[in-house]
Amino acid sequence: QVQLVESGGGLVQSGGSLRLSCAASRNIFSIFAMGWYRQAPGKQRELVATVTSSGSTNYAESVKGRFTISRDNAKNTVYLQMNSLKPEDTAVYYCNAHLVVDYWGQGTQVTVSS
After folding, report:
1. What is the Cα–Cα distance from 83 to 96, expressed in whole angstroms?
2. Which of 39, 43, 52, 100 is least crowded, fewest Cβ atoms below 10 Å from its Cβ?
3. Using CA atoms, how far apart are residues 66 and 98, in angstroms rounded to an integer?
4. Contacts of 28 (CB under 8 A, 6+ apart)
5. For the residues 91-112, what does the mean pLDDT come to?
């Protein structure tokens, strides 16, 4: 079993930055792919960014050039640096760990005001 705990969400003005963190309950980064997803009100959950166990990253087109996913293996933590935030980035952001099955965090709210 894996527990994931997100933090770092909040309210920010358009153009601002936030950094989300996701701490895992045990050392999983060597074998799990990690990712960030988001869900806005009335919409389906969508992929934001992923990083594989080998370090390859993938981003949604809507966040390319603005968001950066990274991980600190020593701290069992994955980060999402979000710059140049837009109101359409407003959503609940979820951390995901994937290895055959998916584990999810509880989510953290990000609100971007115009």
Report:
1. 21
2. 100
3. 24
4. 2, 76, 97, 99
5. 95
Q: Tell me which residue has tokens 């509880």.
A: 106
Question: What is each CA distance from 62 to 9, 29, 32, 92, 98, in whole angstroms?
Answer: 19, 26, 25, 16, 22
Comparing CA positions, the residue from 22, 12, 17 lying closest to residue 96 is 22
pLDDT (tens digit per residue) in 34-93: 999 999 999 999 999 999 988 899 999 999 999 999 998 889 999 999 999 999 999 999
For the segment 7-30, what is each residue's pLDDT rounded down to a tens digit?
999 999 999 999 999 999 888 877
Query: In this structure, are residues 51 and 35 in contact, taking their beta carbons and an 8 Å threshold?
Result: yes
Q: What residues contact 40, with CB distance under 8 A and at least 6 apart?
A: 88, 90, 91, 92
